[in-house]
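Page 42, continued from yesterday. The earlier attempt failed because a stray header line got pasted into the input along with the sequence. Redoing it now with the clean sequence only.
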Amino acid sequence: MTREEKAIAIDNIAAQLGEYPHFYVTNIEALNAEQTAVLRRKCFESGVKLAVVKNTLLIKALEKVDKADAELIKVLEGPTSIMFAQTGKVPAQLIKEFRKKSDKPVLKAAVVEGCVYVGDNQLDTLCNIKSREELIGDIVSLLQSPAKNVISALQANAGGKVAGLVKALEERNN
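This time it went through. Structure tokens are written below.
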């Protein structure tokens, strides 16, 4: 590979690292052609981009976009593939589902929601991570719950009594 080709490859990886907020570093070495094709198809259907990369080029790309974490760099040995995703837990779920039939892909590391997860033992944790949107939805529903309870109490049969009590308290304070 010439220097120009390496520079282009580094720029391409860096662009994908910038485009996708979450990525998983995996090892798919032992998969045969059929299994690899099935994995690529599942990735495509799930909106995950799968790419096989050279470790040195990935390190340079990580450095270029300021995502070079010491723990992440340590796992970049041997065959490496990257799974890029817009949603943090989708690749973990895909890996877990695919491993019902095979022992690969093996998770080396993942960067999800800005945090680095190292090791295959983190797969269950990554499957259970909620996305930012899911967390916001949970918070909104928690905040709405007390207001809904008050409104339903005011609208119920006892609502007239509650409303009367509120009105009496307001008059008392004035």
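Notes: Residues 133-173 form one domain.
Reminder to self: strip header lines before submitting.
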